Protein backbone atom coordinates (compact mmCIF):
# COMPACT_ATOMS: atom_id res chain seq x y z
CA UNK A 1 0.00 0.00 0.00
CA UNK A 2 1.17 3.55 -0.14
CA UNK A 3 0.63 7.21 -0.46
CA UNK A 4 1.79 8.97 -3.61
CA UNK A 5 4.01 11.94 -2.84
CA UNK A 6 5.38 14.50 -5.24
CA UNK A 7 8.11 16.43 -3.50
CA UNK A 8 9.15 19.69 -5.19
CA UNK A 9 9.24 18.18 -8.65
CA UNK A 10 10.47 20.28 -11.55
CA UNK A 11 10.62 18.80 -15.03
CA UNK A 12 12.31 20.51 -17.95
CA UNK A 13 12.09 18.95 -21.42
CA UNK A 14 14.58 19.95 -24.00
CA UNK A 15 12.90 19.93 -27.39
CA UNK A 16 14.42 21.43 -30.53
CA UNK A 17 17.12 23.05 -28.38
CA UNK A 18 14.38 24.88 -26.49
CA UNK A 19 13.65 24.22 -22.81
CA UNK A 20 10.03 23.53 -21.84
CA UNK A 21 9.23 23.89 -18.15
CA UNK A 22 6.55 21.17 -17.94
CA UNK A 23 6.41 21.06 -14.12
CA UNK A 24 7.56 23.90 -11.90
CA UNK A 25 8.19 23.01 -8.25
CA UNK A 26 5.10 20.81 -7.83
CA UNK A 27 4.40 19.21 -4.44
CA UNK A 28 1.33 17.16 -3.60
CA UNK A 29 0.32 14.07 -1.66
CA UNK A 30 -2.42 11.57 -2.46
CA UNK A 31 -2.90 9.85 0.92
CA UNK A 32 -2.82 6.06 1.17
CA UNK A 33 -6.00 4.51 -0.22
CA UNK A 34 -7.43 7.75 -1.60
CA UNK A 35 -8.66 8.54 -5.08
CA UNK A 36 -6.87 11.59 -6.50
CA UNK A 37 -7.83 13.27 -9.77
CA UNK A 38 -5.48 15.62 -11.58
CA UNK A 39 -7.23 18.16 -13.81
CA UNK A 40 -6.24 21.23 -15.80
CA UNK A 41 -6.05 22.60 -19.31
CA UNK A 42 -3.95 21.20 -22.09
CA UNK A 43 -0.22 21.28 -21.53
CA UNK A 44 -0.25 21.87 -17.78
CA UNK A 45 1.89 18.82 -17.12
CA UNK A 46 -0.70 16.21 -16.06
CA UNK A 47 0.75 13.38 -18.13
CA UNK A 48 4.29 14.41 -17.23
CA UNK A 49 3.37 14.18 -13.55
CA UNK A 50 1.95 10.69 -14.02
CA UNK A 51 5.02 9.61 -15.99
CA UNK A 52 7.29 10.86 -13.21
CA UNK A 53 5.32 8.77 -10.67
CA UNK A 54 5.46 5.81 -13.06
CA UNK A 55 9.24 6.17 -13.30
CA UNK A 56 9.03 6.67 -17.07
CA UNK A 57 10.37 10.26 -16.89
CA UNK A 58 13.06 11.26 -14.38
CA UNK A 59 12.34 14.60 -12.68
CA UNK A 60 14.87 17.37 -13.32
CA UNK A 61 14.63 18.30 -9.64
CA UNK A 62 12.75 16.85 -6.68
CA UNK A 63 11.39 13.34 -6.26
CA UNK A 64 8.29 11.16 -6.48
CA UNK A 65 7.70 8.68 -3.66
CA UNK A 66 5.30 5.74 -3.53
CA UNK A 67 4.72 4.22 -0.11
CA UNK A 68 7.61 6.36 1.15
CA UNK A 69 10.08 4.87 -1.36
CA UNK A 70 11.66 7.15 -3.97
CA UNK A 71 10.75 6.25 -7.54
CA UNK A 72 13.84 5.39 -9.58
CA UNK A 73 12.21 3.60 -12.53
CA UNK A 74 9.10 1.64 -13.50
CA UNK A 75 8.04 -1.12 -11.12
CA UNK A 76 5.27 -3.63 -10.43
CA UNK A 77 4.14 -1.63 -7.38
CA UNK A 78 2.53 0.81 -9.85
CA UNK A 79 -0.20 -0.31 -12.29
CA UNK A 80 -0.81 1.84 -15.35
CA UNK A 81 -3.93 2.31 -17.49
CA UNK A 82 -3.82 4.64 -20.49
CA UNK A 83 -6.41 6.09 -22.85
CA UNK A 84 -5.58 3.90 -25.79
CA UNK A 85 -6.46 0.28 -25.42
CA UNK A 86 -3.26 -1.44 -24.53
CA UNK A 87 -4.42 -5.05 -24.36
CA UNK A 88 -2.35 -7.65 -26.19
CA UNK A 89 -4.52 -8.32 -29.26
CA UNK A 90 -3.15 -11.83 -29.75
CA UNK A 91 -4.11 -12.94 -26.25
CA UNK A 92 -7.58 -13.81 -25.00
CA UNK A 93 -9.12 -11.69 -22.23
CA UNK A 94 -8.17 -14.18 -19.52
CA UNK A 95 -4.60 -14.45 -20.88
CA UNK A 96 -4.30 -10.66 -20.87
CA UNK A 97 -5.40 -10.54 -17.23
CA UNK A 98 -3.03 -13.36 -16.24
CA UNK A 99 -0.05 -12.07 -18.21
CA UNK A 100 1.58 -10.12 -15.33
CA UNK A 101 0.95 -12.75 -12.63
CA UNK A 102 2.32 -15.38 -15.01
CA UNK A 103 5.55 -13.39 -15.49
CA UNK A 104 5.73 -12.96 -11.72
CA UNK A 105 5.61 -16.75 -11.35
CA UNK A 106 2.15 -17.06 -9.76
CA UNK A 107 1.07 -20.72 -10.09
CA UNK A 108 -1.55 -21.39 -12.76
CA UNK A 109 -4.29 -22.48 -10.35
CA UNK A 110 -3.98 -19.33 -8.24
CA UNK A 111 -3.82 -17.18 -11.37
CA UNK A 112 -6.99 -18.70 -12.82
CA UNK A 113 -8.86 -18.35 -9.53
CA UNK A 114 -7.95 -14.71 -9.32
CA UNK A 115 -8.75 -13.88 -12.92
CA UNK A 116 -12.10 -15.72 -12.62
CA UNK A 117 -12.99 -13.68 -9.57
CA UNK A 118 -11.95 -10.33 -11.05
CA UNK A 119 -13.66 -10.96 -14.37
CA UNK A 120 -16.85 -12.01 -12.56
CA UNK A 121 -16.77 -8.85 -10.45
CA UNK A 122 -16.56 -6.80 -13.63
CA UNK A 123 -19.33 -8.67 -15.39
CA UNK A 124 -16.84 -9.99 -17.93
CA UNK A 125 -16.96 -13.73 -17.20
CA UNK A 126 -18.62 -14.65 -20.45
CA UNK A 127 -15.87 -12.83 -22.39
CA UNK A 128 -12.94 -14.57 -20.71
CA UNK A 129 -12.12 -16.51 -23.88
CA UNK A 130 -12.77 -13.67 -26.33
CA UNK A 131 -10.04 -11.69 -28.06
CA UNK A 132 -9.88 -7.92 -27.40
CA UNK A 133 -11.04 -7.12 -30.95
CA UNK A 134 -14.33 -8.89 -30.17
CA UNK A 135 -15.08 -6.46 -27.29
CA UNK A 136 -16.45 -2.92 -27.31
CA UNK A 137 -14.15 -0.06 -26.31
CA UNK A 138 -15.74 0.19 -22.86
CA UNK A 139 -15.22 -3.51 -22.23
CA UNK A 140 -11.62 -3.34 -23.40
CA UNK A 141 -10.94 -0.55 -20.92
CA UNK A 142 -12.57 -2.61 -18.15
CA UNK A 143 -10.27 -5.49 -19.04
CA UNK A 144 -7.29 -3.10 -19.00
CA UNK A 145 -8.24 -2.05 -15.46
CA UNK A 146 -8.72 -5.67 -14.37
CA UNK A 147 -5.35 -6.52 -15.87
CA UNK A 148 -3.65 -3.70 -13.94
CA UNK A 149 -5.33 -4.84 -10.71
CA UNK A 150 -4.44 -8.51 -11.25
CA UNK A 151 -0.80 -7.54 -10.68
CA UNK A 152 -1.86 -6.35 -7.22
CA UNK A 153 -0.10 -2.98 -7.45
CA UNK A 154 0.09 -0.66 -4.44
CA UNK A 155 -1.11 2.24 -6.57
CA UNK A 156 -2.91 2.74 -9.88
CA UNK A 157 -1.88 5.45 -12.35
CA UNK A 158 -4.55 6.26 -14.93
CA UNK A 159 -4.13 8.74 -17.79
CA UNK A 160 -7.52 9.63 -19.33
CA UNK A 161 -8.51 5.95 -19.32
CA UNK A 162 -12.08 6.73 -20.38
CA UNK A 163 -11.21 9.53 -22.82
CA UNK A 164 -12.15 7.53 -25.90
CA UNK A 165 -15.53 6.30 -24.61
CA UNK A 166 -18.97 7.68 -25.44
CA UNK A 167 -20.87 9.38 -22.57
CA UNK A 168 -23.02 6.42 -21.54
CA UNK A 169 -20.21 3.87 -21.66
CA UNK A 170 -18.00 6.32 -19.82
CA UNK A 171 -20.48 6.71 -16.98
CA UNK A 172 -20.73 2.89 -16.68
CA UNK A 173 -16.94 2.60 -16.60
CA UNK A 174 -16.72 5.26 -13.88
CA UNK A 175 -19.18 3.36 -11.68
CA UNK A 176 -17.31 0.15 -12.34
CA UNK A 177 -14.05 1.76 -11.25
CA UNK A 178 -15.48 3.32 -8.07
CA UNK A 179 -17.10 0.01 -7.06
CA UNK A 180 -13.84 -1.78 -7.55
CA UNK A 181 -11.91 0.91 -5.71
CA UNK A 182 -14.32 0.78 -2.76
CA UNK A 183 -13.63 -2.94 -2.43
CA UNK A 184 -9.86 -2.69 -2.81
CA UNK A 185 -8.88 0.84 -1.79
CA UNK A 186 -5.68 1.28 -3.73
CA UNK A 187 -4.24 4.77 -3.98
CA UNK A 188 -5.16 6.14 -7.42
CA UNK A 189 -3.75 9.04 -9.44
CA UNK A 190 -6.23 9.65 -12.27
CA UNK A 191 -5.70 12.28 -14.99
CA UNK A 192 -8.77 13.68 -16.72
CA UNK A 193 -9.98 16.71 -18.70
CA UNK A 194 -13.53 16.05 -17.56
CA UNK A 195 -14.51 17.96 -14.41
CA UNK A 196 -17.71 15.93 -13.87
CA UNK A 197 -15.63 12.77 -13.98
CA UNK A 198 -13.08 14.19 -11.51
CA UNK A 199 -15.69 15.31 -8.95
CA UNK A 200 -17.64 12.06 -9.27
CA UNK A 201 -14.58 9.86 -8.72
CA UNK A 202 -12.26 11.76 -6.43
CA UNK A 203 -11.53 12.24 -2.78
CA UNK A 204 -9.25 15.07 -3.84
CA UNK A 205 -8.97 17.03 -7.07
CA UNK A 206 -5.60 18.62 -7.88
CA UNK A 207 -6.08 21.58 -10.20
CA UNK A 208 -3.03 22.37 -12.32
CA UNK A 209 -2.23 25.50 -14.31
CA UNK A 210 -0.20 25.65 -17.54
CA UNK A 211 3.00 27.32 -18.76
CA UNK A 212 4.69 26.52 -16.51
CA UNK A 213 2.85 23.50 -15.06
CA UNK A 214 2.04 24.25 -11.44
CA UNK A 215 -0.34 22.95 -8.81
CA UNK A 216 -2.96 25.65 -8.42
CA UNK A 217 -5.15 24.14 -5.71
CA UNK A 218 -6.15 20.91 -4.01
CA UNK A 219 -9.93 20.60 -3.57
CA UNK A 220 -11.21 18.00 -1.09
CA UNK A 221 -14.43 16.41 -2.40
CA UNK A 222 -16.56 15.71 0.62
CA UNK A 223 -19.42 13.84 -1.08
CA UNK A 224 -20.70 10.65 0.57
CA UNK A 225 -19.82 7.21 -0.86
CA UNK A 226 -20.95 5.01 -2.46
CA UNK A 227 -21.71 7.56 -5.14
CA UNK A 228 -24.19 6.91 -7.89
CA UNK A 229 -24.96 9.09 -10.92
CA UNK A 230 -27.70 10.92 -8.98
CA UNK A 231 -24.94 12.75 -7.10
CA UNK A 232 -24.34 14.68 -10.36
CA UNK A 233 -27.63 16.52 -9.86
CA UNK A 234 -26.99 17.68 -6.28
CA UNK A 235 -26.16 21.33 -5.38
CA UNK A 236 -22.97 20.18 -3.59
CA UNK A 237 -21.74 18.57 -6.81
CA UNK A 238 -22.54 21.74 -8.77
CA UNK A 239 -20.61 23.83 -6.21
CA UNK A 240 -17.47 21.70 -6.52
CA UNK A 241 -17.72 21.75 -10.28
CA UNK A 242 -18.10 25.54 -10.34
CA UNK A 243 -15.13 26.03 -8.01
CA UNK A 244 -12.86 23.87 -10.16
CA UNK A 245 -14.03 25.37 -13.46
CA UNK A 246 -13.44 28.87 -12.14
CA UNK A 247 -9.91 27.92 -11.09
CA UNK A 248 -9.20 26.49 -14.56
CA UNK A 249 -10.64 29.55 -16.32
CA UNK A 250 -8.65 31.88 -14.06
CA UNK A 251 -5.41 30.07 -14.82
CA UNK A 252 -6.17 30.08 -18.55
CA UNK A 253 -6.86 33.84 -18.45
CA UNK A 254 -3.63 34.49 -16.50
CA UNK A 255 -1.62 32.49 -19.02
CA UNK A 256 -3.06 34.52 -21.91
CA UNK A 257 -2.52 37.85 -20.10
N1 LIG B 1 8.67 14.43 -24.48
C1 LIG B 1 8.49 15.76 -24.49
N2 LIG B 1 9.42 16.58 -25.05
C2 LIG B 1 9.24 17.92 -25.06
N3 LIG B 1 8.19 18.55 -24.51
C3 LIG B 1 7.24 17.80 -23.95
C4 LIG B 1 7.33 16.36 -23.89
N4 LIG B 1 6.23 15.87 -23.26
C5 LIG B 1 5.49 16.95 -22.93
N5 LIG B 1 6.09 18.11 -23.33
C6 LIG B 1 5.60 19.47 -23.10
O1 LIG B 1 5.45 19.63 -21.71
C7 LIG B 1 4.26 20.36 -21.40
C8 LIG B 1 3.35 19.49 -20.52
O2 LIG B 1 2.88 18.39 -21.29
P1 LIG B 1 1.92 17.24 -20.72
O3 LIG B 1 1.65 16.30 -21.83
O4 LIG B 1 2.49 16.72 -19.46
O5 LIG B 1 0.61 18.08 -20.36
P2 LIG B 1 -0.88 17.58 -20.17
O6 LIG B 1 -1.45 18.45 -19.11
O7 LIG B 1 -0.93 16.13 -19.95
O8 LIG B 1 -1.52 17.95 -21.57
P3 LIG B 1 -2.78 17.31 -22.34
O9 LIG B 1 -3.95 17.54 -21.44
O10 LIG B 1 -2.85 18.12 -23.60
O11 LIG B 1 -2.45 15.87 -22.56
C9 LIG B 1 3.66 20.74 -22.74
O12 LIG B 1 4.09 22.04 -23.06
C10 LIG B 1 4.22 19.72 -23.69
O13 LIG B 1 4.32 20.23 -24.98
UniProtKB/TrEMBL annotation:
Cited CDD domains: ABC_NrtD_SsuB_transporters
Keyword annotations of the record: ATP-binding, Nucleotide-binding, Transport
Transmembrane portions of the chain: none
ABC transporter domain segment(s): 4-235
GO molecular function terms attached to this record: ATP binding; ATP hydrolysis activity
Family matches, as Pfam families: ABC_tran (PF00005)
Gene3D superfamilies named among the record's database cross-references: P-loop containing nucleotide triphosphate hydrolases
InterPro entries: AAA+_ATPase (IPR003593), ABC_transporter-like_ATP-bd (IPR003439), ABC_transporter-like_CS (IPR017871), ABC_transporter_ATP-bind (IPR050166), P-loop_NTPase (IPR027417)
Name the record gives this protein: ABC-type nitrate/sulfonate/bicarbonate transport system ATPase subunit
Species of the source: Conexibacter arvalis
Lineage: Bacteria, Bacillati, Actinomycetota, Thermoleophilia, Solirubrobacterales
Amino acid sequence: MGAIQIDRVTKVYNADRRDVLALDDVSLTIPDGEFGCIVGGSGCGKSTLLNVIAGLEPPTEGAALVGGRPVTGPGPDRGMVFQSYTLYPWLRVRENVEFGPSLAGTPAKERHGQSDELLAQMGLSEFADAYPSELSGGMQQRVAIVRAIANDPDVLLMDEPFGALDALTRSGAQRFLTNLWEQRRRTIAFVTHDIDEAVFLADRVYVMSPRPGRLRKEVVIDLPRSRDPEVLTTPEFADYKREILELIHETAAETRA
